[in-house]
């Protein structure tokens, strides 16, 4: 397993892969999950994202789980763990663009719609008690994000939908747009 993963994963050397396997085994051993024999279930993975990377947004953590769980069996195997962390922690800009797009494309149809942007921003922003309708502020943010992305892309029809190519071009022109709809990558720390 170690040799196979060390060959297939681009961004970790063999000793790092070995450490990640050991960490995986330790975390799984501490778990009381019904999946403990084979890997992480959704709750255990979310706890790991929260404790190790400070992620708090439930929707984002569920989306990260889905990206890691490549075979869609509701369990993250050691291979999916190491391969997912390779992109999550050390991926190239191209890999991170693809990863973030997959996170934000909630229905996996190849587009990030205005509604998906709204849902992502609504879940990632702190709720502040006020007299204003918070959804109106979020709609304004979606409009601002679309205008910013439209100014850097070829979204001539201004239909409020971002294709992968639109998203990729916007991020290449302005790297800060990579996580425009919610934090889904670890910070530099």
Description:
- This protein is mainly alpha-helical.
- It has two domains: 1-90, Recoverin, domain 1 (Orthogonal Bundle); 93-177, Recoverin, domain 1 (Orthogonal Bundle).
- Helices cover 59% and strands 2% of the residues.
- It is built from nine helices and two strands.
- The chain has helices at residues 2-8, 14-30, 42-53, 58-68, 78-90, 93-104, 114-124, 134-152, 164-173; strands at residues 111-112, 162-163.
- A two-stranded antiparallel ribbon has the order 1-2.
- Helix 1 (2-8) packs across helix 2 and helix 4 (58-68) crosses helix 6.
- The longest helix is centred in the last third of the chain and has 19 residues, at 134-152.
- The chain starts with a helix and ends in a 16-residue tail after the last helix.
- GO terms for molecular function: calcium ion binding.
- It comes from Bucco capensis (collared puffbird).
- This is EFCB1 protein.
- Keywords: Calcium, Metal-binding, Repeat.
- It holds the Pfam family EF-hand_7.
